[in-house]
Amino acid sequence: MLLNVIARGPEAAESADSARPPIVLLHGLFGRARNLGFFQRRLARTRRTLAIDLRNHGDSPHGPMDYNTMAADLLETLAHHAALPATLVGHSMGGKVAMTLALTRPGMVHSLLVADIPPARTGHGQFSLGEHMLRIVFPSYLNRAEADALLKPDIPNADVRALMLQNIRLGENPGWIIGLRDIVDSMTNIESWPYIPEGYSYPGPTLFLAGANSPYIRHEHYGVMRRLFPNYRLELIEKAGHWLHVENPTRFAALLEDFTETY
Fold this sequence. Notes:
It contains eleven helices and eleven strands. It is α/β, with parallel strands linked by helices. It has two domains: 5-122 and 193-262, Rossmann fold; 126-184, no CATH class. β2 (23-26), α1 (37-43) and β3 form a beta-alpha-beta unit. α5 packs across α6 (158-165). The longest helix has 14 residues, at 67-80. The chain is globular.
């Protein structure tokens, strides 16, 4: 499946560092490529960048989801855009997609940044959220303020709700833009971790970023992180939970830029 891509690079061709691999940005569950625009624009001052809508998200096609399938989507899309090998940057679900590709096709991944997700089964209420979203009854017309009020009971965090609002078609005949039915039907796969054969690992530079207030990356994950990603390091982002790039964008950007400039 070819995925929707937002491509950015330096405005002046002579500013591009063509010797460096492209940087690929992958959003999390219920996100979309343009959510990462702030970081993409910063990176694109000197580097070729591609922000991608994963399947069932943004403007990409819909269909059943599991991490091997989504990694195959990503590989096909990057090959189509002559963007391999690449530096992969993924948040949450996007981080699992990036890790899966790195472990199964390590030669296609130059370096890897994973934001607030371990290589393990996770799940903190997203299935319930998806079910609640499916049950929302849309009126015949909806503006942004009304959509915000519609989501508020299930998504009290205003920053997260603002991201989710981008998944709603406003105006006449409002509804979900994303493949919400496919997402909910695939939630067990999304919250899981794919089978990785014994002996598989990714030897390249790997940075895990964890929100200091997030429940996702825990001490019990460190062993599997070291086994699968032997050259990893972990950085905590203070004053942030799972949506660390939204809650502390300054620190997230600094760590992201330092990593992509180094590797």
